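Structure first, sequence second, as always.
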C-alpha cells in the first residue's frame, strides 16, 4: 500500500512526514497526535495563487479549517489574509500576524460584541448575511470617520453536490440572503454613512469535486453585479468563497486551472478584484493523525482494530461518514489484507475512524496514520470522555516542533468549578 501523499513517503518501511519519521515522533510526543507538513501547505498555497496569477485576487485562508497559530503564521508569511467566523478566530488571525485589513469576517450571524470588536481593530471587510445584521452594523458604524467595507453574502440557490451538512448555497440553507432581496439590501446599505457596500460574497459549500456548481453560482452573481451597477451601486469586488475539494478517496480532484478559467470567463469582464477563502484545499493533505493500536479483537461479526484516537480527536468520519485513508506507519511485510473497522475507545458505537476497511495485519502497539486529517481535524476535537486535547506537530524538512502540547489532566479538570454550597455541610 503506497502512501497517497508525496510529503508522507515511506522510507525504509516507515512513514515519514517530509524528513521526519512518524515512528520517531510517536516516541517523542506519544500518541495520538496530529502531524502537519509545512511543505504541503506551502505547495497548496502556491498552487492556488498560481492558478489566479494575472487576476487581481487575494487568498484569505479559512481559519476554521486549522487554526493553530503556527499554521496561521505560515500562511501569513506566504502572504495570505484570513477568513474568520468568530471573534476567537479573528483574535487568532491577528495574534499570528495577519494584518487586520487582510481579514474578512464571515459567519452566518455575528453578535454585536463581535462586530464591535472587528470594527475596533480595523477589519478589512465584513460579510453581512441578513438585514438584521446590517442594521446592527449601521448602528455601530454611524459617526465613524472611515466607513467599513462590506460584502453582502447571497444565497444563489445552487446545489453544490457535496455532503448535505456542508452544503451552504441552497435556498433552504441558513446562509446569505436570497438573490432577489440583494438589490434592496444593497440600496439600504449604500444609504448608511458608516458602510461601504462594495462586494458580493458567495460560498455554496465545502468539498466540491465538481466545478459545475461554481459555474452556476458565479453566473448568478455576475448577473446580480450588473443589475446592482445599473441601479447605481458600484460593486468593485467579489468574494467567491472556498470549497475546492480534495481527493480523500483518490478521486480526480478539480483542476485549479479549470476553476480559474470559470472565474475568468464569468467574472473576468466585471473589473472586480477577487477574494477566495480556501480552507480544506490548503491544509487537508498536509495532516496525518497518528495513533497506536491498543488491541485487535474479533467482534461478533467484524474484526475491530481499537486504537487510541477517537471521534473526539477526529469527528469527520462520525459526523459526515467521511472517508480518510488509514495506513500502517510501518509497512507490513505480508501483503494480505483483511477487512476491519478502525475504532476508538470512546463509549459510542459511532466512534470510528474507518468502517469495513481492508487493512494489513496489525497488532497491539502498531502505529496507524489517518491521512488527509489536516483540515477540520484538530479544530473539531473535543474532550469527550475526559480525553485530553492531543498534540499538534509541525514538520518542515527535517525540523519539527510541537505547535500545541498535549493538554494536561490538571488543565482539563481544572476548568471546572465546584460551588461552595455543594461543600457546605458535607459529611466528613
Ligand atoms: N468560506 C466560508 C464562508 C465557509 O463557510 C467555508 C467553510 C469556507 C470558506 C472554507 O471552505 P473550504 O475551502 O474549507 O471547503 N467541517 C466540515 C467542513 C465545513 C466547512 C464550512 N465552511 C468538514 O469537515 O468537512
Amino acid at each position: 500500500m503506497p502512501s497517497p501523499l508525496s510529503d508522507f513517503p515511506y522510507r525504509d518501511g516507515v512513514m515519514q512526514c517530509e524528513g521526519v519519521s512518524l515512528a520517531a515522533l510517536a516516541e517523542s510526543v506519544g500518541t495520538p497526535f496530529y502531524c502537519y507538513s509545512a511543505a504541503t501547505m506551502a505547495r497548496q498555497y502556491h498552487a492556488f495563487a498560481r492558478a489566479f496569477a494575472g487576476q487581481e485576487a487575494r487568498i484569505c485562508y479559512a481559519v476554521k479549517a486549522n487554526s493553530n497559530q503556527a499554521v496561521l503564521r505560515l500562511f501569513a508569511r506566504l502572504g495570505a489574509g484570513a477568513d474568520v467566523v468568530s471573534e476567537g478566530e479573528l483574535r487568532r488571525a491577528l495574534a499570528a500576524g495577519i494584518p487586520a485589513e487582510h481579514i474578512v469576517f464571515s459567519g452566518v450571524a455575528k453578535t454585536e460584541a463581535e462586530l464591535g470588536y472587528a470594527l475596533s481593530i480595523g477589519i478589512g471587510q465584513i460579510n453581512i448575511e441578513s438585514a438584521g445584521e446590517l442594521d446592527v452594523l449601521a448602528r455601530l458604524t454611524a459617526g465613524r470617520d472611515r466607513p467599513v467595507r462590506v460584502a453582502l453574502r447571497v444565497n444563489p440557490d445552487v446545489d453544490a453536490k457535496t455532503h448535505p451538512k456542508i452544503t451552504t448555497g441552497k435556498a433552504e440553507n441558513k446562509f446569505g440572503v436570497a438573490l432577489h432581496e440583494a438589490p434592496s439590501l444593497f440600496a439600504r446599505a449604500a444609504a448608511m454613512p458608516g458602510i461601504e457596500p462594495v462586494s458580493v460574497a458567495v460560498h455554496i459549500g465545502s468539498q466540491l469535486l465538481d466545478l459545475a456548481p461554481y459555474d452556476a453560482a458565479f453566473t448568478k452573481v455576475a448577473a446580480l453585479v450588473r443589475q446592482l451597477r445599473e441601479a447605481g451601486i458600484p460593486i468593485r469586488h467579489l468574494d467567491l468563497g472556498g470549497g475546492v475539494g480534495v481527493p480523500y478517496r483518490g478521486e480526480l480532484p478539480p483542476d485549479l486551472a479549470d476553476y480559474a478559467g470559470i472565474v475568468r470567463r464569468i467574472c473576468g469582464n466585471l473589473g472586480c478584484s477577487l477574494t477566495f477563502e480556501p480552507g480544506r484545499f490548503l491544509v487537508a493533505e498536509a495532516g496525518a493523525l497518528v495513533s497506536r493500536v491498543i488491541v485487535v479483537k474479533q467482534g461478533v461479526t467484524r474484526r475491530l482494530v481499537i486504537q487510541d484516537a477517537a471521534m473526539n480527536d477526529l469527528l469527520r468520519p462520525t459526523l459526515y461518514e467521511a472517508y480518510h485513508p488509514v495506513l500502517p506507519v510501518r509497512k507490513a511485510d505480508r501483503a494480505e489484507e483483511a477487512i476491519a473497522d478502525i475504532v476508538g475507545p470512546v463509549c459510542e458505537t459511532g466512534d470510528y475512524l474507518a468502517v469495513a476497511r481492508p487493512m494489513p495485519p496489525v497488532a497491539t502497539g502498531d502505529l496507524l496514520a489517518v491521512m488527509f486529517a489536516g483540515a477540520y481535524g484538530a479544530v473539531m476535537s473535543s474532550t469527550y470522555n475526559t480525553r485530553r486535547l492531543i498534540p499538534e506537530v509541525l514538520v518542515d524538512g527535517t525540523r519539527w516542533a510541537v505547535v500545541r502540547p498535549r493538554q494536561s489532566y490538571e488543565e482539563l479538570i481544572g476548568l471546572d468549578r465546584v460551588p461552595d454550597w455543594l461543600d457546605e455541610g458535607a459529611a466528613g
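Margin note: The two ends are 61 Å apart (CA to CA).
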